[in-house]
Amino acid sequence: MTSPFPAPAPARRRIAAQASFETRAILRNGEQLLVTIVVPVLLLVGLVRTSVVDLDTGGVDRVDFVTPGILALACVTTSFTSQSIATAFDRRNGVLRLLATTPLGRGGLLAGKILGVLAVQVVQVAVIGAVALGLGWQPVLAGVLPALGLGLLGTAAFTALALLLAGTLRAEGVLAVANLVLVLLVVGGGLIVPPAELPGPLAHVAAFLPSGALGEGLRGALLGTGVPALSVVVLLGWTAAFGAGASKLFRWH
Amino acid sequence: MRGLRKTYGGRDVVDGLDLQATAGAVTAVLGPNGAGKTTTVECCEGLRSPDGGTVRVLGLDPVADAAALRPRVGVMLQDGGLPTGVRAMEMLRHVSRMYAAPRDVDELAERLGLHAFARTAVRRLSGGQRQRLALAAAVVGRPEVVFLDEPSAGMDPQSRHAVWDLVRELRADGVAVVLTTHLMDEAEDLADVVHVVDHGRVIASGDVPHLLSDGASGSAPRVRFAARPGLPVGALAAHLARDLPDAGWSAVEAEPGEYVLAGPVAPATLEALTGWLAAQDTLVTRLTVGRRTLEDVFLDLTGRHLR
């Protein structure tokens, strides 16, 4: 044997490499960039600058009212839409299996994916935040930390849902479902339009959806009215449910 | 590996399979499509859990000891497993970062001709280019054991030889190489040991000369010829035995109009054969003399019907 005994790189370096690989893959992919950055920014500008959508802001500035919802949407596009589609195609193409045979392993792959999602979210918050500030956004600074915590919780719930879908459905099915669910959540999930302002039974249901809980929580934090306890409980519940489902049902093949 | 069993939906895909691979040797698992080759190597790679039997790689259990094995085992999947959105060399560099002391990525790329498409997205690569990239990813961590699932599928002859050279070099370095293939020349040229697998079982094992020899006639040449179907092969064998009485002649019509003659083939055999055919008023449309090939062995063992 001429080669030295083969050893893995340290776990931290493996996961960091995977996270940076995932981040670059998302930021370089046109469609992913569209859904994670361009659409939220366009919605932000459109909703603040026009009154096409009638919103009862309860007396606060439109930009202050809309921006938390756009941040909630951004969180969902990365952790759910983009991640479910990317993972589903990686699964179909055997990428998950191949990387699982390298020292990265399945655990490292998962950790890399989650860190990749968080890295993209940092970019999203920077871009959306900058545009919102340009539009006159004045967030309640005391709410920033609770908002970050809630964002992490929302990311956990929606990443778990993404993995549940990606690990059980065909890639084309995931593509369709992920986009459809995103549209439904934007229109009637309580992300941008608060659950209370939704028509009919949705007004009662949306607050218990992870989307409604995330939207309400971020609005509460950044508008200074406080994070509703219901938001935290609902998000924890969905995270546990989706996480249990994903870890039980996810198929690598 | 002993008594490996794997069942999908009540159907045994691998059924009591035994095989062994040794360091510094190339072990080929040869079999038709659906024989259970991929399932077998995936059990070795820890990607599937066997339903029965024992699998040990470097003395370790591929599932329970996965973390210890991963740095020491290189894998090339049949479907490649390459992410499609990244550039070729970016992918290879990424995989190399998983190892403490990987091979030199540029040297490896040079060996396998990857530089020509280094900056091309994986999704735009041809089948052969992808295969070469996947092979590079399998060996970049200096593994002690390499599993290659159909390594030269979809490759042009130049790529194939580059791959074969690399496999021989791995063998010389003491690596245990296990490859699945349904390509006879690949197994014949490359493998030290061949296991022929069908319906989830090993139906023949040994080095290539051993597989090619078949009992009494050893690796003696055979005469194959094509002529009108339905010739009286019994009479032909008797005719050859009369002229060349040394014994052991067999003549069979393997397929309608395709005949195989086995025995102590000598220069006079052909004269006797053509004389007999002339007496039958039969024209030979093709006649070859040659040793049994691995393909003959394979077809004899696994049958000629399509599946």
TrEMBL record, chain A:
It is found in: Cell membrane; Membrane. The chain crosses the membrane at residues 33-53, 65-89, 110-137, 143-166, 173-193, 229-250. It comes from the Bacteria. Belongs to the ABC-2 integral membrane protein family. PROSITE patterns: ABC_TM2 (PS51012). The keyword Transmembrane helix applies. Residues 31-253 form the ABC transmembrane type-2 domain. The lineage of its organism: Bacteria, Bacillati, Actinomycetota, Actinomycetes, Micrococcales. Pfam families: ABC2_membrane (PF01061). Keywords: Antibiotic resistance, Cell membrane, Membrane, Transmembrane, Transmembrane helix, Transport. This is Transport permease protein. Its main location: membrane. InterPro entries: ABC2_TM, ABC2_TM_bact-type, ABC_2_transport, Nod_factor_ABC_transporter. It is a multi-pass membrane protein. The keyword Transport applies.
From TrEMBL, chain B:
One of its GO terms (molecular function) is ATP binding. It is a peripheral membrane protein. It comes from the Bacteria. InterPro entries: AAA+_ATPase (IPR003593), ABC_transporter-like_ATP-bd (IPR003439), ABC_transporter-like_CS (IPR017871), ABC_transporter_ATP-binding (IPR050763), P-loop_NTPase (IPR027417). The keyword Transport applies. CDD domains: ABC_DR_subfamily_A. Residues 1-224 form the ABC transporter domain. Keywords: Antibiotic resistance, ATP-binding, Nucleotide-binding, Transport. It is found in: Cell membrane. PANTHER family: ABC TRANSPORTER ATP-BINDING PROTEIN. This is ABC-2 type transport system ATP-binding protein. It comes from Isoptericola halotolerans.
